[in-house]
Amino acid sequence: MPSTEVTFNRNEQLGSLLISLVVSAVMYGITSFQVYVFFKQDDDRPKDSKAMQGFVLFLWLLDTLQQAFVMQVTYWYLVTHFDDPSSLSHSTWGHTSQVFITAIMDILCQGFLIRRIWHRMSSSPSANRK
Asked: Where are its TM segments located (predicted)?
């Protein structure tokens, strides 16, 4: 029987992981700047409620935690198991945690958006017509 040898190309297998880390870090930086601007409001703009400030801070902390998980997964594959192609068939605790944190953030953000749309539609003049 002829044997087929499986080749491991790091560029194809792990290059996208490194690119994803860089893009994720840039997006995290943009998010952090937006949070800074949100809390550093001008005096002429009305302040948001404490609940809204807490919500923004909580989402930013979840985003920080997710970024840490992304870095842990990338480190695990690119440093700890650098020359071990079999490690690609294993999932780390960072993968599982990242999925869980992302789901929580998505539910919170979409719930907030639904709530805003609901309030806007119920307070619009056309909603009060019969």
From this structure: 17-39, 51-78, 98-118
DSSP string, 62-105: HHHHHHHHHHHHHHIIIIITTT-GGGGG---HHHHHHHHHHHHH
Q: Based on the number of CB atoms within 10 Å of its own CB, is 67 exposed (0-12), middle (13-18) or buried (19 or more)?
A: buried
Express each pLDDT in 10-59 by its tens digit.
677 778 888 999 999 999 999 999 999 988 876 667 788 889 989 999 99
Domain boundaries, the chain: 10-123
Please report, for residues 34, 53, 54, 55, the alpha-carbon distance to residue 50 in angstroms, rounded to integers and kept in the order given: 17, 5, 6, 8
